[in-house]
Design goal:
GO terms for molecular function: oxidoreductase activity, acting on paired donors, with incorporation or reduction of molecular oxygen. Its EC number is 1.14.-.-. Keywords: Oxidoreductase, tRNA processing. InterPro entries: Rhodanese-like_dom, Rhodanese-like_dom_sf, Rhodanese_C, TrhO, TRHO_N. This protein is α/β, with parallel strands linked by helices and 343 residues long. It is 29% helix and 20% strand. It is built from 11 helices and 14 strands. Bound molecules: zinc ion (2 copies).
Length: 343
């Protein structure tokens, strides 16, 4: 029985190109008590590997968070498998608007402490005591209410390229930081204001809403299915779209265009731009916004220092990388003093 990947990303890319079959990029999450995450993880891997499903999945005692690419022709089989797991029966699947054959090149199912890294002690509150879920129609109406405080529960690099009109977008690096900042800002309005939250797919708000209720907020709402589901409903139902720009996503597309507004700037020249990239220097890997002109001029790097490094022989680069975590693991994702136009 195969429990881990054997193909490299390159081999997988070639296979996908060759097959040329239609795939669906989708995501789902569910908070649920999972007794043995390792056993569950293996069950998922074996089945999805057989179904040619790719993606990044986290399993924890508190639930599952999955981002996947599923062959369209095996979707029914995939769905039946999910429905056969009692807590995943009829789970809402967020299907991406822009489809990309190569959104994921591997199947990685990982067991983690939490499905959302939140630094919270969940024993102290009930995660399932969540806020009121609202769909796109109700959300559009609700956010016009003068008593509403609309909060973007994502990090700075996500809300920078797209967010709802009039939303508060905390300048934070982590979910944990935003929880504290919002609570502090709204401490005198726990009863008179309506707290309305949104995030990418709903997973963060679901926990945040339970947390804020526990902290004494009386009126807590969350956008069901997050920006992904909102965009889908807006399109299907012909609703007014109150989002601006791009929805940051965590696969290699980096962002999904929701409207044509470009609300951010190239971090190097200041021109309007909302394309995220990672610095070409492997040891840096900084996530930042770079326009096409700067990408050429800067050789896809974030700084002159990094350009210098990518011109060193590979061996020398490797030697220098030893023991240095890249920005995936650095706390201050997307921030660098070298980026002139990053606020
Ligand atoms: Zn630029
Ligand atoms: Zn760099």
């Amino acid at each position: 029985m195969q429990l881990y990947n054997k193909l490299s990303a390159k081999e997988r890319e070639a296979l996908l190109e060759e097959a040329g079959e239609e795939r669906l990029t989708l995501s789902f999450y569910k908070y649920a008590k999972i007794g043995n995450p390792h056993l569950f993880r293996n069950h998922l891997f074996v089945t999805w590997h057989e179904q040619d499903v790719l993606g990044r999945i986290y399993v924890a005692h508190e639930g599952i968070n999955a981002q996947l690419s599923v062959p369209a022709k095996r979707f029914k089989e995939f769905k039946e498998f999910l429905d056969g797991i009692n807590f995943l029966k009829d789970v809402r699947l967020n299907i991406a608007i822009e489809q990309d054959l190569k959104s994921f090149l591997k199947l990685k199912v990982k067991v983690r402490d939490k499905i959302v890294a939140d630094g919270l002690n969940d024993e102290t509150f009930d995660v399932t005591n969540k806020g009121v879920h609202v769909d796109a129609v109700a959300f559009n109406e609700l956010i016009e209410d003068p008593d509403v405080v609309l909060v973007d529960m994502r990090n700075h690099y996500e809300s920078e390229i797209g967010h709802f009109k009039n939303a508060i977008t905390p300048d934070v690096d982590t979910f944990r930081d935003s929880l504290d900042i919002i609570e502090e800002d709204l401490r005198d309005h726990k009863e008179d204001k309506k707290l309305v939250m949104y995030c990418t797919g709903g997973i963060r708000c679901e926990k945040a809403s339970a947390y804020y209720k526990h902290k004494g907020f009386k009126n807590v709402f969350q956008l069901e299915g997050g920006i992904i589901e909102y965009a889908r409903q807006v399109e299907n139902l012909g609703l007014e779209n109150k989002f601006l720009g791009k929805n940051f996503v965590f696969d290699h597309r980096r962002g999904e265009r929701i409207t044509n507004d470009i609300i951010s700037h190239c971090h190097q020249c200041g021109e309007p731009c909302d394309t995220h990239t990672n610095c070409a220097n492997q040891a840096c890997h900084l996530l930042f916004i770079q326009c096409e002109k700067c990408a050429v001029a800067m050789e896809n790097c974030c700084s002159d220092d990094c350009i210098e490094i990518i011109h060193l022989p590979e061996e020398e680069q490797k030697r220098r990388r030893q023991g240095i975590p890249n920005s995936n693991k650095i706390f201050k994702k997307g921030r660098s003093e070298k980026l002139k136009f990053k606020k």
